[in-house]
Every structure is written in structure tokens, then in C-alpha cells.
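ZP: hey, is the zinc ion complex queued? I don't see it on the tracker
AM: it wasn't, my bad. submitting now with these inputs:
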Amino acid sequence: MLLLPTLALVGLFTIFALAAEDYYKLLGLDKSADSRQIKKAYRKLSRQYHPDKNPDNEAAKHKFVEVAEAYEVLDDDETRKIYDQYGHEGVKQHQQSGRSPGQHHDPFDIFSRFFGGQQRGGQRRGPNMEVRIAVPMRNFYTGADHQFKIEKQAICSKCSGSGSEDGQRDTCGRCNGQGMVIQKHQLAPGIFQQMQMQCDVCGGKGSTVKHKCKTCNGQRVVREEEEYELSVEKGMPKGARITYENEGDESPDWEAGDLLVQVVEKEAEIGSSEDERTDGTFFRRKGNDLFWTEMLSLREAWMGEWTRNLTHLDGHVVELRRKRGEVVQPGAVQVVSGEGMPIWRHDDGLVYGDLLVDYVVVLPDQMESGMEKEFLTVWDKWRKKKGVDLHKDSGRPEPKIHDEL
Ligand SMILES: [Zn+2]
Ligand SMILES: [Zn+2]
């Protein structure tokens, strides 16, 4: 029913629809994004959809063009303001009126201008960055989203990584843009050594800057703190590595390496909040199974008739119980199936491992003498009545003692 009117609309507005996707949405940003976030989004997406990386992929090419268009409009304060207020139509009119001479429109121009014309194919890659983040085991059980901050090297957004206040870089006069100079050393009269060295004026860059950018002091990069989202999935293995592509240290000279986050388990501790005070906090995890040690008194182990309520990692209760007369041997292990860890990304949805309860029996080491005597009397009485032979069931060979007389 809904299909017909939708089709008609699409037919009418095809031409507009191509250009009408929200620019912020295209770049994966919201309206409050700052200049740095816009540049960053463009840096990432333009590489991802570049036709060199996606040969014969029309959809990628289309995306590449759209992303360039969005970046071009949002990166410029004036056009961004117009877009925010009047949308695509406003920007179009503004561009047609010729009041934006700085605009490029050719997505490849935008791309090579952004990357300084040096980044196509075979570009150098920066080092990967590795961090460890410790989260409580509860997070591995229930799943959790965290935010974390990392200080890293970022391209200076004030000068877009040129190091120059006016965006101008001049060819270095000393090395003629080569970045290298030949130096002659006299080793002995008439004997010279020629050495190629990095240019000391431009530091090997081949270009110099007259007016240094004040934000980065001409260094082209700054130290910045950036925030990331970490999603700990249910049942994720301890030590799992999550890759944040191209989020390593940035530099205009290379494609940023990856940020690798290793998610490790925090040591258990009694916390202050209610959910940090469950028995589950002290479960031990091995793969998909959880382990717990439960203490029983002699009477409980022997006579039964006891109950324990274990509060699990999410607060639900696992009841352990024995009826009267049910014996638990010391060291016995009870498998409570389905009360272990969720199995990470299981095909059938949420499936859980087991909880293994290890029973430790604590014998009384202090007894009132009257009580001790009573126990002994009871045992003696029953031993005589049943005629218990302690060797009988031991499986040991009978001692060969013969009466020689
Ligand atoms: Zn700068
Ligand atoms: Zn130089």
C-alpha cells in the first residue's frame, strides 16, 4: 500500500534526492561537530571510498563524491552557516551566485588538496598504538559501554597540518626542496669526504614556513586528548583486542596507524555500590565457565539440610541446597549448567557456560569436651554393633601374619 506513493515521490525527486542526503549524516557527525571532527571524518571516509581503493565500484565512487561535497560545504564557516540555515538549496544558490571563489567542486581536487597531493597509493603508515583497558568481570557478563580518553598526536586543526599560519609553505632555499644537502669534509690535505645529510634548515621537509602557526608552533601536529567508545560485548574473551582503524598517532607525513585496545579483566574487589557487592564479583572465570568455592560445615556436608543463595554477577540468585541426608564429599564439584559466562557471539543467541561449585568442608577444631565424648561414644557403639573392619574395603593386600606356634 505504501509502495505506490513512495515510488511516485522517488520518481519526482530523483535529481534532488542524489544531492539531498544530510551532510552531517554522510560524514557520520552531528550538528555540533567541530572543525577537527569534520576533517577527521573526511580523512577517514575519503580514503575508504577512494576509487583507487574500490576499482569498478560505482557505489563507492558515488559516496566518494558525496563525502567530498559534504566536507567542502561544512569545512567552510560561511557555507556551513548557510547550509545549517537553508539546507542544500541555500548552498546551491550561494555557489551559483559566485560568492564562493575558494570552492573546488572537483572531488579529486578536494582530496589531493586535503592530503597535500602526496597520499595516493603507497603512502607511509604510522605506528600502531596499543592500550590496555581493565574492566570488571561483571561487564564481560552483562555487556557494557565505556568511554575512555587517550592522549595522542593529532594533526593541528588550526593550520590543517601545514605548520603555517597562512597555509603557505616555501621551497627551502638551502636544499632546493630536496630535504638533503651534500657536505664536504676535509679529512686530510687534499682528501675530502662527501656526505649526504638531512637539511638542517627545513629538517628534511624540503619546505619552510615564514609565519609559523601559533597553535602548533610550526610543528604541524599537537598533543590532544580524544575520547572513544568501548563496547564490551557479553562473553567477550579476556584480553580481546579491538581495532580502531586509523586512530593511532596522526601526522601529515603518514596514514595514521591503528589504535589497538586490549580489554583485560580487572582484579576483583569489594566495591561501594550494591552491584559490586555480589558473590559473583569473586567468581573466577575460565573461558565460558565460572568457578566458585563454597564452604560447608561438617554437619552440613554430612547431614545435608542446608541452603545457600549465591548472588550472580547481574544480581540474580542461584540457589544451592541439599535435603536432609544428602552428603557432600569434601572436594566434590557441582556443575550448575547454564550459570557460567555467556558464550560470545553464539550462533543461537544467548547461551551460557557452566558454574562449577567446589565444596570445601571445614571440620571443627574446637569442641566442648562433653560433645567430643558423646561423639566418641556414639561411634564406639556403632562400630561394635556393625563390627567394622577398617581394612576390609581398603583394597590393600591382607597382611600375611601367620601364627607360627
Ligand atoms: Zn598548526
Ligand atoms: Zn631544506
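AM: back. Residues 274-362 form a domain with the HSP40/DNAj peptide-binding domain fold (CATH 2.60.260.20).
ZP: great, adding it to the tracker
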